[in-house]
Amino acid sequence: MTSQSPPHPLAMPRLRKHAAMIGTATTATGEHSMVLRRTIRAMAATALLLLLGASQRSALVDYPEGFRRWTHIKSGVNGPAYGPYEGMYNIYGNAKALRGYRSGRFPDGAMLIFDLHRVRTESNGPQPAERKFIDVMQKDARRFRSTSGWGYEEFAGGDRNNRVIAPDARMKRCHSCHVAQQSADSVITRFSD
Ligand code: HEC
Question: Class for domain 67-184, per CATH?
């Protein structure tokens, strides 16, 4: 009996074609997983950018919508020695700020506004003229952790689109002065009915 070894499978034309197809499929899968990896990487990068964007946005002080209808805390006049703060001002606080004045600890959401105007001398004496800027303090212990929970912003002309204080300048430009009032939670003005 002659033992005839079977032909090598790849010697058979149909199987060779099949093997070639499998090879192609393997390459395609390789490319596919590379594309998949790249897509995942791109998605992760996008998610990171969105997160960073969101955290930067949330670190901005909110515009104090309707602050002119809040509670009036104090008015005053600053002379030329006060430089950019020269003018007539009113300070306003929202309902949460009033809770802070009562308890001595300002809760998250408390907002205080320093609303400064130029002075024009009329026949009856000095009168408030156009708005120079509003200075805003907003309490949020988490968002503004590095400045005792207070976010600071200046809106030139009171314009919501004209922010003056970069988030990383809050300490130097604003909080460095306010923080001296530690026992009053960094708020300088006192309130009385
Ligand atoms: C040189 C010190 C100093 C700096 C710097 C300063 N402030 Fe004030 N701020 C004051 C004083 C003093 C008052 C109180 C004015 C009053 O009661 O007549 C005040 C009052 C305020 C108030 C009213 C609430 C309170 O604490 O009495 C707000 C709001 C405010 N400042 C925001 C800001 C912002 C925003 C900045 C930065 C752009 C800033 N301040 C920088 C000294 C400072």
Answer: alpha beta
User: Is a pLDDT exceeding 90 seen at residue 56?
Assistant: no
Instruction: Give the number of other CB atoms < 10 A from CB of residue 174.
Output: 21
- Domain residue limits, the chain: 10-58, 67-184
DSSP code string of 82-148: GGGG-EEEEEEE-HHHHHHHHHSSPPTT-EEEEEEEEEEEETTEEEEEEEEEEEEEEE-TTTTGGGT
What tokens were used for 7?
A: 């032909």
Band (134; pLDDT cuts 50, 70, 90)? very high
Q: How far apart are CA 74 and CA 191, in angstroms?
A: 7
Ligand 1, CB within 6 Å, residue ranges: 74, 76, 91, 112-114, 135-137, 152-154, 165, 173-174, 177-178, 187-189
The mean of the pLDDT values for the chain is 85
